[in-house]
## 1
Amino acid sequence: MSAPIVAVVGGGQLARMMQESANALGIHLRVLVESKEAATAQVTPDSPVGQASDTQAIAEISQGAQVLTFEHEHVPNEFLETLSIPVRPAPKALLYAQNKLKMRQVMDALGAPNPRWAEVSTKGELADFAQKVGLPLILKTPTGGYDGKGVLKINSLGEAEEWLSALGEGESLLAEEAVKFNKELAVLLARRPSGQVRCWPVAETIQQDGVCSVVLAPAPNLSDKVADRACELGKKIASKLNVTGVLAVEMFLVGQADEAKLYVNELAMRPHNSGHWTIEGAVTSQFEQHLRAVLDLPLGDTSPVNGAAAMVNLLGSDFSEPREAYPQALAADPAAKVHYYGKGVRPGRKLGHVTVVGPDSSECARRARKVVNILQGKEAE
């Protein structure tokens, strides 16, 4: 029996980490990478170069593959409908991770809890919405944003003028109320085409300048009832939208204890930064699970292996080559696991992450942060 071929669009760190799980399962990855220096190209032999917008390149990597999947959402959706192999998640589902306005509309249609929102294209429309919900507001570009890009918090209408004036004919922005949340949560689950779904423990995410910095799993001080509600909400979204593969539902938690409310923030239909802790912290990692799901194989156990875990992102470094600090960093905590993505250093860029597994997620985070600080050239806390 020949190895099943999974074609992947996108050559960043997510596909790079998917390769490790593919190795274990004997799955052949064929990844469309942006350049031969891309993170995945460094570890995946079958990595033709091409842009995610290049339909011919996508068609070529799909030839002979059992399935096509993605490590980011920035792909030509309508073209995907023309391919002769399964596309997972399907274009009709992927749309809701690509377009935030469409996502808000379908969440309303499903009865999922949304923050108050409006589609705006003029200062007058924005002013009307601001009068209803108050300032500050969050503005988002409907497509193309990630890691804090395409998101603007405004405290006055004047702060939105540049974005509004840049809109073309027929273009608009998503305006949302600025939710006063207690925590940001991430519900990570996987669903296979036959309908089987498995959910990992709900995690808490902590942001730095709009980019995920720390993930604590399970989310500390989250009641079992709220965690169950969050997971059921994620399962409902996956089922109703017919999502296949890994789905991450980012949520706001408002309030305390069992009475806390949940609001959907954003969706991602692929392995997600909030799930990197699962590599060491869960019986089945999100990357293995994604491959299982898109190939419609039985899903793995999502239980934690040691009670809790924490992941801290390596966001930029004072070193031109952070691996120079390995002798000190690896000695600082022999139980810490370093994942380096092979990217060039620039301020704030996701260069890697460090995970620590143990009985207490906050203590795990402290230990992981110590190692990250060393890799960044900062004095360890």
Note: The chain has a mean pLDDT of 96.
## 2
Amino acid sequence: MVCRTCGKKGDHWTSKCPYKDLAAPPESFSDKPATADAATPSKSGTYVHPGQREGAKLGSEMRPRRHEENSVRVTNLSEDTREPDLLELFRTFGAVSRTYVAIDQKTGMSRGFGFVNFVNKEDAERAINKLNGYGYDNLILRVEWATPRAN
């Protein structure tokens, strides 16, 4: 093997090279980023994780935030209700950002409840007022504000 520090063949590993204090730093290493649009390195020239760099978003800030205050819970859904069905039913009241129907993992059938997130709170309120008690797929829907998740 050839030592990366001294370039000599020998019975030592690079980390144990007796000449490592005398060797010049490798030319291929650069403190500067390869491209101009890359994040700037820290002042000391050490690696900084992208999440810890100046201006970086933290944890939950990186994911698009759900507007849980605009979320509606729908219960008493039939077993064959799917997310496109909920979207079709609720989009008449306004822009829907997300639909979710709870599915039983074993049977693949609906568990009887779901959630609809609206872009605007007024649209969600209108949907609750119109669809609570509405007959859908031979069942009477219960539509109410979703309670926020406990962290």
Note: The first strand starts at residue 71 and ends at 75.
## 3
Amino acid sequence: MSQGLIPATILTGFLGSGKTTLLKRVLTEAHGQKIAVIENEFGEENIDNDILVSNEGEQIIQMNNGCVCCTIREDLRSTLSDLAEKRRKGELSFDRVVIETTGLADPGPVAQTFFMDDEVAESYLLDSVLTLVDAKHAEQQLDTRQEARRQIGFADQIFISKTDLADPAAVDALAHRIKHMNPRAPQSRVHFGEVSLDKIFDLKGFNLNSKLEIDPDFLNADDGHGHHHHDHDHDHEHGEHCDHPHHHAHDDDVKSFVFRADRAFSPTKLEDFLGSIVQVYGPKLLRYKGVLFMKGSDRKVIFQGVHQLMGSDLGPKWMPGEKRQNKMVFIGIDLPREILEQGLTQCLV
């Protein structure tokens, strides 16, 4: 029995985007992994009963292939603790957990559970938040539902499904729009539920230290200020410097912005400022992340957060000759960009 933290994946997405198809595939495919699936809604349209082996009155159901399925009767926290305890006692065997949220849920509180609750944090590691987007209906959903926009803002990885049913130009415009809302989540276009498992698991989207290993471009991504020539339409971050006229029809409330500076931060000033920002704007901050150059430290500091919960970690040392700089990405709803920029600038040494 491997000890160590159990990786957890949050699967979110609009109704009809293919979450159930994806889940069924993950659960029935012979990938040699035992997966526990926690469902926030457990309806007849979800997992077929023919692949379930149910014990009467038990909320945890074993699959024929050894996977485990679980409905959330109380809250997520107790369900996770319960699963971890059964695993420790050897009553259940599973390698990882996938949590499917309801179609219009805000994944924020689910993600926060992994930070806030000591018992959960001792057993689980939040690997990533995956958002499925239905290419055919997304445009309208993003226009009318803030929950849909929030799901994009939270994502570590975005899968656009049903692209074969939508007009290719519309899919390109959708991909572009999503990129403005969340530049740090890679996008993949997938056939309904056909995603290879290595794109779903162990993405390390949320683990602080691994961010640098898996995303060497995090520090050098062009943030679209026009200093560099754009070779690719879809590579720049946030919309304000975007020259694509088709895009301006959507001024989404979920936006990202990048702060960059070559001078070091004063640790105390930065902590005070970020603390106050998180107090005031926490509910509107979906995800934020950064690699920081701190005065007095020869190591990178990696910081990230969800809503009001913020954490930081020492990263690797700055290499000799490596350019030391701060880069932070904030994704949120109607972010007070000027306040953030001025405040962060005042925290520089």
Note: The two ends are 49 Å apart (CA to CA).
## 4
Amino acid sequence: MKVLIVGNGGREHALAWKLLQSKKIEQVVCVPGNGGTASMEGCQNLPLSVNDFAGISQFALEKDISLVVVGPEVPLANGITDYLQSQGLMVFGPVKAGAQIEASKAWAKALMQKAGIPTAKAAVFTEAAAAKSYLKAEGVPIVVKADGLAAGKGVTVAQTLEQAENAIDAIFQGQFGSAGNFVVIEECLLGEEVSVLALTDGLTIRPLLPAQDHKRIGEGDTGENTGGMGAYAPAPIATVELMARVQTEVLEKAIAALRTAGIDYRGVLYAGLMVSPDGNFKVLEFNCRFGDPETQVILPLLETPLEDLLLACIQQRLGKMPPIVWQQGSAATVVAASGGYPGDYEKGKIITGIEEAETAGAIVFHAGTNLNTAQQIVTDGGRVLNITATGENFPQAIAQAYASIKHIQFPEVYYRRDIGHRFLKNE
């Protein structure tokens, strides 16, 4: 079968890499893809925008594409699944109505509250004055969120009143585009975050391995939020007992609430949780797609053929599938980023050492790369590469990732040197 993947990041490279391990997959096409997918045997790039629904549809129909997998949240929120399904294509990813669960934090919060899903206390505002008044009454620390899609950067955990007020002003002044029409202000939860990505066909929902992302740019989880600077799986803080509670108190309630709302949700439902020191948890947010960089540490451990799971979701037969099979051990990834990220950064810098990093034992997933006219791999984004490794345990996996990333070279390369620090501290 032929598969088309929409997106150009590390997540999409990892999806293509995993699918191409199967003998059932004849070819993968990435739209628009990156330097890594362009260089991978059995994979080709198609230079279309992720929002060119008509162009993607035309190509998929002409080339007999069996399955379309949508990576990023933006095309899902814009209705790509609805459009491609109307053209007779099989698509993995929720319809536009379901993608609201990520596209509007206010909508998702209302859904959680109505369904009785444990989540942080919150209020939604449409003007700065009212938001700041509420802020002063609640006090700090407090969390200020842009309502819509902001590439993982629309959240401020404010430690001072000034920080919180500046965040409110930035949102309402349009720093995050249409995501700034509403502001969501939440209580600040303490503990450790864990990402639970689950596959669903709208009736049955099955979690993948829990992962822990590292959102902040700086070591020790300091500095600005990013799209993610590294991750590992499975996250030991998500115990068997906790995951059983997440299944009944979060995942199953969410799918039931979506059905009650008349939404047939098929795809990934990703719950971002905060686990408190006493072992309880609350949902920070929902996402409507595979996480990035969580996918890059979950898929290397997956033994069940990925295409079988995706098709079971689309065809609403996930409940008849045998249990998902996982490789023993752990996986870890470290993000090599452009200097200046998550702020301004330059593109087009030549990258060397990828082959050496892979020879040293890593899987290098390309995130923000491209090919220049000389067919050299160059930087093309803020998060450039995901240096991923597996091992019998987490210390082995992260040591391998760091040993391999030393080979990666491009001007002003930056990466955190403490991915998994909470795990190692607990050990």
Note: The first strand starts at residue 2 and ends at 7.
